[in-house]
Amino acid sequence: MDRPIPEPAVIATRAALEAIAHLVAERGPVLFFQSGGCCDGSLPICFQEGEFLIGDRDVRLGEVGGCPFYIDARQNEVWKHTQLILDLGEGEPEGFSMGAGDGRHFITRSRVCGVGPAGSGTPGPEEPADG
């Protein structure tokens, strides 16, 4: 019996992928960290590569637009059946995140599904295969 292919743990909308491409072209490589609360609520935080130290308890969920996306291991354990969808919201970012350009910021939407282990899977329906 064939097993269903698990969905990737993180994907991005086309609008988010376009914003990422623009950021990388202007500023260089970036990475994302899914905040678990406190100062940034539960928003994804976008950092220029090298501005955020990845810790031993951080898990790489995958990549969006060729950029790594991390989450704290404890938060990942709680959200492990949730697919994160990186998208854009109106307004400048709050807290420590880089903006997405044009007065927008990155947001995370989610849906419960059969995601594979962190870092596995293929692009989902909202992320092109080359994303």
Would you write up a description of this structure?
It is a single chain. By secondary structure, the protein is of the alpha/beta class. The protein has a single domain, classed as Hypothetical Protein Aq_1857, Chain: A (Sandwich). Helices cover 15% and strands 34% of the residues. It contains 2 helices and 7 strands. The chain has a 4-stranded mixed sheet. A 3-stranded mixed sheet has the order 1-6-7. The chain is globular and about 45 Å long. The chain starts with 9 loop residues before the first strand and ends in a 19-residue tail after the last strand.
Attribute tags:
alpha/beta; Hypothetical Protein Aq_1857, Chain: A; 3-stranded mixed beta sheet
Strand order, main sheet: write it out. 3-2-5-4
Average residue-wise pLDDT: 83
- The CATH topology: Hypothetical Protein Aq_1857, Chain: A
- The geometry reads as globular
Radius of gyration: 14 Å
Sheet-strand content, in percent, reads 25-35%
Order of helical and strand elements: EHEEEEHEE
SS-derived structural category: alpha/beta
- The CATH class turns out to be Mainly Beta
Number of strands: 7
- What count of structural domains? 1
End-to-end gap: 31 Å
CATH architecture verdict: Sandwich
The low-confidence parts are 121-131
The number of helices is 2
Largest sheet: 4 strands, mixed
**What helical percentage do the residues reach?**
10-25%
